[in-house]
Amino acid sequence: MATMLLLTFLISSLIMVTVGLAIDSMEILLLGIGGQLSVDTSDVEMASLDFGLLTRGQPLAVLHPVSAQDIARVVKEAYGSNQGMTVSARGHGHSINGQAQTTNGVVIQMSGWKGGNKPPRPRVWAEERYVDVWGGELWIDVLKSTLEYGLAPKSWTDYLYLSVGGTLSNAGISGQAFNHGPQISNVYELDVVTGKGEVLTCSEDENTELFHAVLGGLGQFGIITRARISLEPAPKMVRWIRVLYSNFSAFTSDQEHLISLHAEPSNQKFDYVEGFVIVDEGLINNWRSSFFSPQNPVKISTLFPTGGALYCLEIAKNYHESTAQTIDQEVEFLLKKLNFISTSVFTTDLLYVDFLDRVHKAELKLRSKGLWEVPHPWLNLFIPSSKIAEFDKGIFKGILGNKTSGPILIYPMNKNKWDHRSSVVTPDEGVFYLVALLRSALDNGEETQSLEYLNNQNRQILRYCDEAGIKVKRYLPHYTTQQEWMDHFGNKWDRFYEMKMEFDPRHILASGQRIFTPTFPSLSNMPS
């Protein structure tokens, strides 16, 4: 009851102050929320920021839910009121441009619970090979829970301290996507709280349109409170390999060859295919490439082409104790068909869980140096395969020069592993690349590492693509006008808009995405 008294006070008083509305008194809402609604300064401050540190929200309160019903009651109140209250779900806060923030509304803090009550823990169905997880569960905890049964999800993100609902609202990609598709291609069922406050179960067989709309739907149609995720037997070990190229064509040709093997038996393909660009020798040992060490037999600096870049192919092969005796032969068979620099093979073996959690260990090092909580003007692009060489020439060997301030990932994926019914937009080619410029802005006096410089460079990159006719699609997209969003979604826009009007007609969910403007009678009738 105390929680709902706080919610009523919030809606009645804070919205009047923030929005400037004169509202009638409201009845006390005895909705029986089991979680905690907080206006504590530390909670509100946390919910006003994200990993990008590029924008700041102004939430009125933060809800720490323990059930879908908690969320539904708050959303239903927002939907039924005329006061302009919005609701945004926030996982681990890893958004870049304020996508999970809100102003004059409530942030649903899906991860990191407070108080004695907690949401349901992951429930593993070992025989059926799936797991039911709370939408705010972090992938690292999903992994730990499923490994107890010798199982694991098939598709991952590189960083595991992200929420399930957060990645499924975008796509969820890593080096396994060429084989298993993105994370959204490995979901059997969802529970979703719509923008009307309804709790709906959806799947291929039930509420099918909502199911596909929510997957990759940027939080526009509902808040994911439960996901049923496909599992497979978990390997014990991983052979992790990196090889270098000075020739971009050879690099991408080998990458595309490796992902073309997706239908082959497991002993005739790698389980993970990624890559990255090295335009700055000083970044060889950054948080994404600490794999290289002074003990390596080749000095990487001697491989740098004049005025060019190096390209690193990153591949991995999973194995068990029962297949350990054949792993060397399997890897050798696959490597001998590739055209990398022969003296540049770097190999290590490690536990499967350590491989999946590799970025977190580097995060801890950066945190200890004060280099994690800095602005991150990241730019993630899907590039058609037919244009990737032109992108290399204009961006990697052109606009970026020989200085950058973070990793640059590049790897191809198979479009036929993506369900076209989802809300995600990808290039219209059978193979497309992710290019992710994961850069950090530092206030260290270096112009090329400043936030202004990196933002300007991002705009240069997008302008170059537009002028060169490279039809990129942004992953983790961010736009400021609806016309830009319409251009982004292309022929999916009409359906996207239709689903929005059906499941969130007042546009109260995920307003931080800036796709739709909330609509409330009291706002439309305000005096000018």
Descriptive keywords:
528 residues, alpha+beta, 6-stranded antiparallel beta sheet, 16 helices, 29% helix, Oxid_FAD_bind_N, EC 1.5.99.12, flavoprotein, signal
How would you characterize this protein structure?
The chain is of the alpha+beta class and 528 residues long. The protein has 16 helices and 18 strands. It has helices at residues 2-19, 41-47, 68-80, 139-147, 164-168, 177-180, 208-214, 248-259, 327-335, 352-356, 358-368, 388-399, 451-468, 482-489, 493-503, 521-524; strands spanning 36-38, 61-64, 86-90, 105-109, 123-125, 130-134, 151-153, 187-194, 199-203, 222-233, 237-245, 272-278, 310-319, 346-351, 379-384, 408-414, 431-437, 473-474. Strands 5, 6, 7, 8, 9 and 10 form a six-stranded antiparallel beta sheet that branches. The chain has a four-stranded mixed beta sheet with strand order 1-2-4-3, with helices on both faces. Strands 12-13-11-14 form a four-stranded antiparallel beta sheet. A hairpin with a 4-residue loop joins strand 5 (123-125) and strand 6 (130-134). The longest helix has 18 residues, at 2-19. It is globular. The chain starts with a helix and ends with a helix. Residues 13-31, 285-290, 293-297 and 524-528 have low confidence and may be disordered. GO terms for molecular function: cytokinin dehydrogenase activity; FAD binding. Belongs to the oxygen-dependent FAD-linked oxidoreductase family. It catalyses: N(6)-dimethylallyladenine + A + H2O = 3-methyl-2-butenal + adenine + AH2. It is an enzyme of class 1 (oxidoreductase). Its cofactor is FAD.
